[in-house]
Amino acid sequence: MFISVEGIEGCGKSTLVNGLGQHLHERNIDYVITKEPGSTSIGKILRSILLDKKQQISPLTELLLMFSDRLDHLDKVIKPSLEEGKIVITDRYIDSTYAYQGAGRGISKSIIDNLVSQTEIMLPDRTILLDLSPEVGLKRASTRNELDRFESENIDFHERLRKSFLDAAGDNPDRFITVDAEQEPDKILQLVINKLF
Ligand code: TMP
């Protein structure tokens, strides 16, 4: 089973992903927790470029760097783990590309759709969307670290991301589980476990 967790900055993805891992560990179920960008040695280099505020990166360059990370991630982590029968949980995947590079940076959906089909990127079985207002998310994100290249974008950018994620959820009701991320982390975890397993 291939699961992705998505949402805007500060929505609580890491907490949920760790909680899901703990749940599977306690039940002796084999799983892998992973993330994008930055889960392979190539991906780590790409991540440091992508998040670096000092870099000037055009939208298309950013899109292709994200896809390079994803293809390497699929080859080296996601596909081998699924073939071994493990549950794979990734913190961000393709819906982040439609949100950030599509709605955020203004790249047309058809360009991203074409890349998805040409590279034969697999879709997750289930996607958890932690939905939160950007005001709350960015406040949370700013208290934990210095804001990166994406987090430092203005509130309109983050509003567009939220809308893109909600639109994707609306278009793919069988794949998405949308959760109000203002709830307590334990409540969110329980809700997601009940829906997933
Ligand atoms: P995160 O690990 O804190 O979520 O940081 C990853 C950043 O990369 C986050 O700001 C979202 C961004 N991102 C994209 O812009 N496009 C993508 O396709 C992915 C996977 C992440």
Write structural notes for this entry.
- With 197 residues, the protein is α/β, with parallel strands linked by helices.
- The chain has eight helices and five strands, in the order βαβααβααβααβα.
- α2 (41-51) runs antiparallel to α3 (59-83).
- The radius of gyration is 16 Å and the shape is globular.
- The termini are close together.
- Bound molecules: thymidine-5'-phosphate.
- Thymidine-5'-phosphate binds next to α4.
- Residues 35-37, 66, 92, 96-97, 100-101, 150 line the site of thymidine-5'-phosphate.
Helix/strand class: alpha/beta
How can the largest sheet be summarized?
5 strands, parallel
> Which radius of gyration do the C-alpha atoms yield?
16 Å
Q: Termini, distance in Å?
A: 10 Å
Please identify the top-level CATH class.
Alpha Beta
Globally, the shape reads globular
Which series of helices and strands comes N to C?
EHEHHEHHEHHEH
- What ligands can be seen in this structure? thymidine-5'-phosphate
CATH topology: Rossmann fold
Judging by the overall fold, what is the CATH architecture?
Answer: 3-Layer(aba) Sandwich
